[in-house]
Design a protein that fits this description.
about 200 residues; alpha+beta; 7 helices; about 45% helix; about 30% strand
């Protein structure tokens, strides 16, 4: 399947700060992060753009108009120089002509994105800030690898918390051996430990 995606899609290299896609774009499709990282933004009441997630290498994002729906729901912005594989709807249709199981894979991707959005909503309602932060770090490490290329300000915005609050929790996690803080990144060292914090 990956060979077909590479054949019919296109590889794009984008610098830090570049928009890979914009919420409201009529042309939909799938974007796969090959190298680098992208932040996921969406519109909030009052015309604000809010950060709600970040995706690193190996993560696929997107949707298709093939089975209904509408314009893109998410803006993707590169937080470092990034290489992306972009497969628009018309390319997905060409691939599916030979590999109809593609639509099952796309449906599974949309389901995973919906499940992720519901988990964020559930955590916001059910968990206090410290446990919610631990849960989010655990999910990010499991989906994008243990090295999270994210600074504390962006993480605070993603969590809806102050930078001071996030910093205090992160220092506590570091003292407990759960992670190591670096410049612009967080190295998760004990994901099961973060899950235990989230569930406590």
């Amino acid at each position: 399947m990956i060979e077909a995606l590479l054949t019919h899609g296109r590889i794009v290299q984008l610098p830090t700060g570049a928009w890979a896609q914009s919420e409201g774009d009529e042309q939909t499709g799938i974007t796969l992060v090959v190298e680098g990282a992208v932040q996921m933004m969406c519109a909030a009441p009052g015309g604000r753009e809010v950060l709600f997630g970040q995706a690193g290498p190996g993560v696929a994002l997107g949707q298709t108009l093939r089975f209904g729906g509408g314009p893109r729901l998410v803006t993707l912005i590169c937080v470092e120089p990034s290489v992306l594989l972009v497969v628009p709807d018309h390319a997905l249709t060409r691939i599916a002509a030979e590999r109809p199981e593609l639509w099952q894979a796309v449906a599974a991707l949309v389901y995973l994105q919906l499940r992720g959005a519901l988990m964020i909503a559930a955590e916001a309602v059910a968990l206090p800030p410290r446990q919610r932060l631990a849960a989010r770090l655990d999910v990010m490490a499991r989906t994008g690898g243990p090295t999270l290329r994210i600074n504390q300000q962006a993480l605070a915005e993603m969590m809806g918390l102050s930078r001071k609050t996030v910093n205090a929790y992160l220092l506590g996690f570091q003292r407990a051996g759960l992670l190591t803080l670096g410049y612009g990144q967080i190295e998760v060292r004990d994901a099961p430990g973060l899950r235990r914090v989230a569930e406590s």
